[in-house]
Please model this.
Amino acid sequence: AQSVTQPDIHITVSEGASLELRCNYSYGATPYLFWYVQSPGQGLQLLLKYFSGDTLVQGIKGFEAEFKRSQSSFNLRKPSVHWSDAAEYFCAVGAAGYQKVTFGTGTKLQVIP
Amino acid sequence: DAGVIQSPRHEVTEMGQEVTLRCKPISGHDYLFWYRQTMMRGLELLIYFNNNVPIDDSGMPEDRFSAKMPNASFSTLKIQPSEPRDSAVYFCASRAGRIYNEQFFGPGTRLTVL
Model:
């Protein structure tokens, strides 16, 4: 079964600084990888996904992520964080032949002025 | 489309009472998922449906939990009897087709069992 690990529970960055959120997955074949964002009191919204092709994927709100098979990672990045990016971020993994996605435990991002 | 609609948004009930949570998926979506989110356990998949048929309910914690999808536009999650440890935010999500497509989440129902 697939699994996903987000090692950072909470991260604080200054507004304008760069951001990288870590995600490691466990699955034998090529995974389907997702990043979702959850603002307070809201449901989750898809930021970006990878399922084939270019390993660097662009998403909404200026986010990008890179799939690195050798490291089993799919880290989320943003070059310059805005105060509105404060939220909780979830990495998720799925696989061909399955219909359910496994979510990580989330990383809560705090942005300070 | 209005997105995934959940009701109620907040529910406060007393232990032992029956609770029914409702979900209207996005029209045309053939998959529907129920999740529970807590601080301790994170986001857990409870059950999912494909074309109104329950496919995997292995995440349903106990027999006190049941879910139905009588038609393509409506699903319910029922807890009977409710217990304080059921307090959580319950999300419904829907998806069109393959696993690599986006799941659209509703705003959630915050359930408090006293």
Observations:
- The radius of gyration of chain B is 13 Å.
- Chain B touches chain A through 20 residues (CB under 8 Å).
- Residues 69 and 75 of chain B are 4 Å apart (CA to CA).
